[in-house]
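Re: How this chain folds, sequence and tokenised backbone to follow
How to read it: Take the token row as a discrete description of the fold.
Start of record: The labelled sequence and token lines come straight after this line.
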Amino acid sequence: MSATDVPARPGGVLALDATMRKEESLAKLAWRRFRRHRMAMVGALILLGLVLYIIVGSLVFSEADANYNDVTRRYLAPGGAFLFGTDEIGRDVLARTIYGGQISLVIGVVAALISVVVGTLTGALAGYYGGLLDSVLMRITEAMLTIPQIFLLLVMAKFFGNRIGDVQVLGRTFSGSVIVIVLIIGATSWMYLARIVRSTYLSLREQEFVTAAHCIGVSTPRIIFGHILPNAMAPIIVAATLGVAGAIITEAYISFLGLGVRAPTATWGSMMQGATSAVIQGHWWLWFFPGLMIVLTTLGINFIGDGLRDALDPHSIR
């Protein structure tokens, strides 16, 4: 449309057409950028497929099927009635990857949620108030960074794992070690996010919209969480996404070492640990399928995290 095609208002002011005035919201802009990120879409499809695999599979197999053992069918190769084969005591590997995936994803999501809440709260308070509170919170953060996460997980899982009884949640039985692992992973993964949020708050608190909120009498909590936090969500969302993958891998570490989620609750990591002795005997399917689930989940989440980082980047022009 040329300037001569734009209708003029009285006084010589040009009236722009509605299509020329159309604005794009930040959410739509981020979604458009995300859709253009090919690997992010691949990651979303991978993650969607895994979620459907777990949901549909749980409708076909029961938890009893996953834990049922029959030594007369031990070490059956994939095929026939057992698509993923059977393990050392005759349990169906397919059913166990389904229910083990539920626990692994729950551990990843809940641990990441705890990490995000603690890291965001710490960084927001430190960055907004500054001064003594900032110094105290950052020294605590630095002290937490010196504690090796894997070592703490191994010690705490060994000490508390057998002291907490099983719990029932939505009809599922979870061993007490799941609670210990989730809490420790969440409590030792928030420090880097706290530093990022702090630096974001240090810059945003000097912006004009914060000054205007102070002038009209907006309360401090509302400024921190209602005005500044929405403008700092980009790094938080990316950290939360990547934190899920990190928590799943961390759980797999300690389960592989035999100090993770205790039986009969299965996770992909504990299934890998149970396959260590079978590898020597050539029973490859015991480690291949749970390992494949871990790899696909990690790749899918990391691809989505990369896409979110680019989509939420305010300096991106794509």
Summary: The longest strand covers residues 167-169. Residues 11-22 have pLDDT under 50 and may be disordered. The chain is about 65% helix and 0% strand. The beta strands are 167-169, 172-174.
